[in-house]
Amino acid sequence: MKKRKGVDGTMTTLVLVSHPQLADSTSQQFLKESLPSDDVIWEHIEGQSTLDVTKEQDQLRHADRIILQFPLYWYAAPAGLKQWEDTVLTRTFVYGDHRYPLAGKELGIVVTTGMPEQAFQRGGAENVTLDAVMAPLAALAHRAKMTWLPTFPIYQFGYLEEPEKLRLVIDYQRYLIQKQPDSLTNRQEWFAHRLLAMVAQLPAEQQTAGKLIASVFDQNRAHLDQLTDTLAMIKEQEDD
């Protein structure tokens, strides 16, 4: 288990990775190195010699956002995740005692595929959408009274160019720790927080330039907020 402590500790994300050959997976190693510095607990399911059910359930209870991360194997998660589900997510734990310990928590899916995005649609090579493939996990979230997040797909990681990988790092980190929904306001707040953290880590001779960048960002953000308010007022007048 790997834990990274955040600055404000406002939210804890539990990332449960299922992959039978994790060390050989370039995509999973890339994602592991891309973990944000905020409150994130990372765990490789198949990497545990013995599955401690009590510990696993305790982690689930204390996490605010739970991420299941895995490659797509024949339209399903690897067998290791299914075994983890059958062992840890017992009927009594999930809903049998009517306490619903996972209620209100967010459940997200990070899934890597060897096929391109256009394959996962009706009439495509796979002739099924990823949402349809993830339906059993969505049903689990519903049964446990959790909040189901939009799936985060990574298509054909091996073909991504460097700019695309850099974008993936940012989008992946936002998926793990940014407030939901993925609105413009929440994106701005996340970037503002990350920018301040980055400036704080700069060498002394670069602090002034870093603070200037942060100031410009805040000013532009304020202008955008004003524009949004103005557009909302115009819309209200049109509705009237």
Structure description:
This protein has 240 residues and is an alpha/beta fold. The protein is built from nine helices and seven strands. Strands 1, 2, 3, 4, 5, 6 and 7 form a seven-stranded mixed beta sheet that branches. The model is unreliable at 3-9 (pLDDT under 50).
| Distance N to C terminus | 56 Å
Question: Whole-number average pLDDT?
Answer: 86
- How much of the sequence is in beta strands? 5-15%
Q: Main β-sheet: number of strands, strand sense, barrel status? A: 7 strands, mixed
Q: How many individual β-strands?
A: 7
Number of continuous helical runs:
9
Radius of gyration: 20 Å
| Poorly predicted tracts of residues | 3-9
Fraction of residues in H or I helices: 40-55%
Structural category is alpha/beta
Q: Strand-and-helix sequence, N→C?
A: EEHEHEHHEHHEEHHH
Layout of secondary structure:
Elements: E1 2-4, E2 13-17, H1 26-33, E3 40-44, H2 53-62, E4 65-71, H3 79-88, H4 91-96, E5 106-113, H5 130-133, H6 135-143, E6 147-148, E7 152-155, H7 162-177, H8 184-200, H9 207-239
Parallel strand pairs: 2-3, 2-4, 4-5, 5-6, 5-7
Antiparallel strand pairs: 1-3
Quickly list its features.
240 residues, 9 helices, alpha/beta, seven-stranded mixed sheet, disordered N terminus, 7 strands
The gist of it:
This protein is of the alpha/beta class. The protein has helices at 26-33, 53-62, 79-88, 91-96, 130-133, 135-143, 162-177, 184-200, 207-239, and strands spanning 2-4, 13-17, 40-44, 65-71, 106-113, 147-148, 152-155.
